[in-house]
Amino acid sequence: MAVRVGMVSLGCSKNQVDAERMLYKIQKAGYQLIEDAALADIAIINTCGFIESAKQEAIETIFEFVALKNEGRIKKIVVTGCLSERYREEVSELIPESDAVVGIGCNEDIVSVLEKIMEGERVEAFDDKEKLSLTGGRVLTTLSFTSYLKIAEGCDNRCSYCAIPDIRGKFRSVPMENLLDEAKKLVAEGMRELNIIAQDTTRYGIDLYGKYMLPELLTELCKIEELKWIRILYCYPERITDELLDVMAKEEKIVKYIDLPIQHCDDAILKAMHRQGTEASLREVIKKIRDRVEGVVIRTTLITGFPGETEEQFNKLAEFVNEMEFDRLGCFPYSEEEGTPAAEMDCQIDEEVREHRAEIIMEQQSVIAEKKNNALIGKTLEVVTEGFDRYGECWFGRSAADAPEIDGKIFFTAPDKKPFPGCFVKVRIDDVLDYDLIGEIVYESAE
């Protein structure tokens, strides 16, 4: 009987792609993959180690599986991903019940790791992080019609609050021909939506081709016939070029949605964060995006309570949010990360103040979101069906204005129709529920 392997992948979609590549290797080696890792012989926890809350989630998850192992319900535990890469000795010492603790540079060797632990060996392996494969087969763990296309690994930005460059290494682009091959395979497997991801998608190609190549990549992706939606995430404001906006405006398959993490608007805070922009440049790029891409949806992320943030600087950020009226926004209290320049700065802000300021921003955004959602009442939107809500007795999905997993949903009734996951339907919006929309199907598209 084949050894059963289950994986829990935590954190971002970039980590999820790594998990899918490991699962492919494991399956190809003859192991049996099962969805519920709690029922497996070997449980792999692919961790996130980006900020404190993610680290806590990873540790709690590992200890849940330690309890299962102690009860005899699973045999082996493997810890992979960013937490084990970042805290090598600490993870091994804190969790001696783990049978393997391996860094991201060992993802290619995951099958060998499993073989060794099944023979009774305890494995601690940390290879060069830049050996992490940028290509390869995947066992998809997303819904049947949507997936992620990771176009680069690592980061060169060196924001003062961020440990990603130390965890993931320098920025390195995936060759375009490999990406196009991978995209075509994904579409052949039924993917209708591709979400373009990297630590910095707008930097794509500079290391391989000497210039930013995201516009060229998007143009080529749009030629894939069965692909319907292409979404761009993780764009840096200073690298939003006219060429990129022209491609977005021109190509119908590129949804008019851009993820633009700005983190703050105060010039002094941005400088302390090692961000390149200023309030003036942020205003300029936001205006340019809206002027050149009709109907564009802008998502951003912000950090409150960065070291030294004064009440005046926070108020400026709050005013900026009200004035810009972002379509989608996430705000997070600053997380003090070991080994980053920001962690060594004077004037660390009290944690309660950081959290309170983030709550204020999100309250503001809820008002903005409600106003924008109310403006959609009576309009008909194209929606990709994701599933059926048994409790609400209705279907749910997303419009092009919503990224998977991070944005709102559209709940809709479908009298006399049974839309299936992945089909695109027309929904008339009748009501608003917080960040979500409620409506009724009016007809299905021919797709």
In short:
This protein has helices at about 15-30, 50-70, 80-85, 90-95, 110-120, 165-170, 175-190, 205-210, 215-220, 240-250, 265-270, 280-290, 310-325, 350-375, and strands at about 5-10, 30-35, 40-45, 75-80, 100, 125, 145-150, 150-155, 170-175, 195, 230, 255-260, 295-305, 330-335, 380-390, 395-400, 410-415, 425-435, 435-445. The chain has 14 helices and 19 strands.
Describe the structure.
The structure is a single chain. This protein has helices spanning 13-28, 52-70, 82-86, 88-94, 110-118, 164-168, 176-188, 206-209, 214-221, 242-250, 267-272, 279-292, 311-324, 351-374, and strands spanning 4-9, 32-33, 42-47, 76-81, 100-102, 123-125, 146-150, 152-153, 172-173, 193-197, 229-232, 254-259, 297-304, 328-333, 380-389, 394-399, 410-413, 424-433, 436-444. It is an alpha/beta fold and 447 residues long. It has 14 helices and 19 strands. The model has no long low-confidence stretch (mean pLDDT 94). Helix 9 runs parallel beside helix 10 and helix 13 (311-324) packs parallel to helix 14 (351-374). The chain folds into three domains: 4-128, Methylthiotransferase, N-terminal domain (Rossmann fold, 3-Layer(aba) Sandwich); 146-374, tm_1862 like domain (pyruvate-formate lyase- activating enzyme); 380-444, OB fold (Dihydrolipoamide Acetyltransferase, E2P). The longest helix has 24 residues, at 351-374. The two termini are 42 Å apart.
